[in-house]
Amino acid sequence: MTRRKTPSSARPESARHEHGLPALKPLRVLVAGEVILDRYLWGDVARISPEAPIPILRVQRREEKPGNAGFVMANLRALGADVSALSVVGADRNGGLLREIFADLGIDTRSILIDPDRPTIVKDRMLGSVQAAHRATQQLLRVDEEDPSPLKPARERELIARVKSELRNCDGVLISDIDKGMLTAAVLRALIDGARARGIPVIIDPRRTEDFSIYRGATALTPNRHETEVATGMHLTDRVAWRKAAEALVRKLGLEACLITLDRDGMYLAERGGKDTYVSTVPREVYDVTGAGDVVLSVFGMFSIAGLGFSSAATIANLAASIEVTRIGTEVITREDLARALSPAHLSYERKIHSVDELKAALERERRGGRRIAFTNGCFDLLHAGHIQMLAFARAQADLLVVGLNSDRSVRRLKGDARPIYPAAERARILAALEAVDYVVVFDETRAEKIIRAVKPDVLIKGEDWRGKRVDGQAFVESRGGTVALAPLLGGRSSSATIDRMNSKPRAGKGGARSGR
């Protein structure tokens, strides 16, 4: 078998991005497989239907995103790769919408064929929460529209012709096979044999089937536990079984590697030559497993194509999947997500510090999980007991707390040129280290109206001394159904008072106490 070659654009494995993330030059990846339009209807459930024993979902928001192979493409773009799509959509509105989404993402769509004989695959998901009980959002129903019959011969030949054209310009191939008729045996063979002829990797997330021989000659497979059990006839109950199954697939299919994803048990990687690696799961609170397999294919595939060792690529993919399952629905994993998760454990609190754009994306995910958001803001220069009490009060008002921190420039405008005592970077780290604080964001304005509009909190917290006054952002928060809560103050505590006391104390000098050396 032709060995895969390392693309000339890849940097050596020793090159690292900050926090240990490999730094790679641009890659071009061909992604083949069924693209799906994932449509989400979000809302809340307040009552049961009088017509049948089913919940009534009051829809508040709709989202449309690319799924399966389309989600793989979106993740690759977020990780910095150039992407070409090889797929089929229907001659319908949904197919047109998918092509528009891909174009907006910068994905090359010239090899997405339009087939008037089959509909674009659509998955409609209804997600709701019982708001009165503050219960987390969950899927209530999924409705699929699809035609899983194999492509007609003429369309199959057209797709294979596109395969030959696309392979000339890519560094590697990722295949997402969900067995919906596009990836026929002939199309798979054209992709695998074509990639072998060029010496480039082809990595496949396989369908559930008893016959994995359709993938013979691929570089690597990433089956899940159940797919592996069906294909091998083995029960994957322990590490011995994981090793036997993975090694059997490598041997029988002529693979270079097989990465079995084992949900709660992590991943098991077998490589040609006998090298095996167990990657334990990263402890997370799981909200939704949707898209986790696609994330593994995206991350493991991209870093493998770039020339990173399979074991290192699997470790990063495992981390990416652990992030994905904490989010409701499919959410792309960015390089920033991975870099933050790879930061040293003793700096884990720094993961709470976000830019405004990062924070908005993070809070959108929190809302999808049904969590309510509290917000407070201030200079927080010389943290004292009054701050601690106020922040604890603020956190108790909702499921998570966002703290808006005045920048150095805005502190000077508010407090004078002698302030702040500590720069914003240090003040942010101190706040982030507190258990009560979930997110910290620095803002540059002297007033908090703009950052409050970005955060969209459910509860806005100010000190008791604001009673009877109009608070920045109050009208906006209340217009969205939120509330303002006033925190009790701890008398005699303030940063300014502390600084005044420090400045008024006599300093040791001539005739004063001498400090020991």
SSE layout:
Elements lengths: L27 E6 L1 E14 L6 E14 H10 L3 E9 L2 H13 L2 E8 L5 E9 L8 E8 L7 H15 L4 E5 L8 H14 L3 E4 L14 E2 L3 H8 L6 H15 L3 E5 L5 E5 L4 E4 L12 H14 L4 H15 L10 H7 L11 E2 L1 H13 L4 E6 L6 H12 L3 E7 L1 H8 L8 H9 L6 E5 L5 H7 L3 E5 L10 H6 L3 E5 L7 H10 L13
Parallel strand pairs: 1-4, 1-8, 2-6, 4-5, 8-9, 9-10, 10-11, 14-17, 15-16, 15-18, 16-17, 18-19
Antiparallel strand pairs: 2-3, 6-7, 11-12, 12-13
Helix pairs in contact: 1-7, 3-4, 7-8
Task: Tell me what the structure shows.
There is one protein chain. The protein has 517 residues and is of the alpha/beta class. It folds into 2 domains: 18-343, UDP-N-acetylmuramoyl-L-alanine:D-glutamate ligase (3-Layer(aba) Sandwich); 350-504, HUPs (Rossmann fold, 3-Layer(aba) Sandwich), CATH 3.40.50.620. It is 34% helix and 24% strand. It contains 16 helices and 19 strands. It has helices at 69-78, 93-105, 153-167, 185-198, 225-232, 239-253, 292-305, 310-324, 335-341, 356-368, 385-396, 408-415, 424-432, 449-455, 474-479, 495-504, and strands spanning 28-33, 35-48, 55-68, 82-90, 108-115, 121-129, 138-145, 172-176, 202-205, 220-221, 257-261, 267-271, 276-279, 353-354, 373-378, 400-406, 439-443, 459-463, 483-487. The strands form 3 sheets. Strands 5-4-1-8-9-10-11-12-13 form a 9-stranded mixed β-sheet, with helices on both faces. A 6-stranded parallel β-sheet has the order 14-17-16-15-18-19, with helices on both faces. Helix 7 packs antiparallel against helix 8. The longest helix is centred in the N-terminal third of the chain and has 15 residues, at 153-167. The protein is elongated. Residues 1-19, 283-288 and 508-517 have low confidence and may be disordered.
